[in-house]
């Protein structure tokens, strides 16, 4: 009997091994066949590796650095790559970016990013990830949050938080504490977002209780696993679906959910509403919502929470990176720093104000040019992803098939010497005469462009201006790190490795 069982087990093991080899062989030849996709079409492409395609760099090199190196290796207008076994197209010219993002938008309405309402409703229903028609409806409803009138209303708050930022840096400097730029600017933006979304005045910078800082910290701090999760959402959505990954971390989502509904319920009980914040706008939107629920009783509630969550990550991550890198460049360009300081002081003297208001901040041309040039050299979001939803003729040589991911390589366009001579030189004078909304013939697209451009662009620019104005009035900055910025390999967006550093020298 024992011998019979052993024989059966032996045959079973052989069968399983043969089956596994057969399956792997079929998968291998399927992938190999698929990896000939661009070659058959005569399109230059990066030679893929089995199973991972062009993604062998993941978790060793940042996506930002990969796309930068990719543009140097393949200077063509468009190039093929492989996301695992799936062919994808990288677009690297302003001309084609304009076509995809604006002129032929009906072919590229949706992002490629993974979004599943069944497993991750909060991650799939926000403005960044949502598909049509939900995306277009939410976009229309959210736009009134970012008018000039509303931005003027929150400038006072941003200035107050910028003053707390100055105090925090002074304390840490006096105590000889290490100041990580990315972290301290994330605190500053978190404090602003707490009020903008929830109407709550709280301060992570002053060391007080700040629940939103807990949420932000979980959303934007990239460990190996969090970085892998985020990367799979954007680059290998099929794996994100199989692994049932969340766009926002579980901890952050639950904390945000509790905080959001606590504020909502308190307002309903008291009958008090704050006109300035996002929660109020979302409540009004829910009352008038015409979107069909498709049998999902939680759709409208999840839509509200999803917009709050994406606003947190969108306004905190990119703004803190831009502030960090702008200070880094000012530290290495003391002559420009002197001019910015002079502009800030002159504006204070001319207005007679101790704290600058909305129009005053917008009127500082050099300070604005420094921010825009930082966004050009260091675009925080290095790519704009789209998926082709119907066959599209790119040019006489290539027809893009339905279902093909298309990535606009923002860095390749920003660093093209035909667009910006000596592109790796930081030169704010390039933008001294530019208007904030000018995409310069699609050669400047750090916030995206077309119907899906970043809805919070003006909000983000305002909070960066407010912080820089206060910092330049109170400090000089000197270099601490090497000039060439090392990026965090775990982050899909651009983030300086180890948070970034400068030396703060008090001016008074």
Task: Report on this structure.
The chain has helices at residues 2-34, 37-40, 63-73, 94-103, 121-124, 134-142, 148-174, 181-198, 211-220, 224-235, 237-242, 250-270, 278-287, 299-332, 334-351, 358-362, 365-377, 410-414, 457-474; strands at 78-83, 86-91, 383-387, 392-393, 399-400, 405-409, 475-479, 502-506. The protein contains 19 helices and eight strands. Helix 7 packs parallel to helix 19 and helix 13 (278-287) packs antiparallel against helix 14. 53% of the residues lie in helices and 7% in strands.
Number of strands: 8
- Give the helix level as a range of percent: 40-55%
Structural class: alpha+beta
Domain unit count: 2
Catalytic activity: an organic molecule + reduced [NADPH--hemoprotein reductase] + O2 = an alcohol + oxidized [NADPH--hemoprotein reductase] + H2O + H(+)
Organism: Yponomeuta padella (Cherry ermine moth)
Keywords: Endoplasmic reticulum, Heme, Iron, Membrane, Metal-binding, Microsome, Monooxygenase, Oxidoreductase, Transmembrane, Transmembrane helix
Subcellular location: Endoplasmic reticulum membrane; Microsome membrane
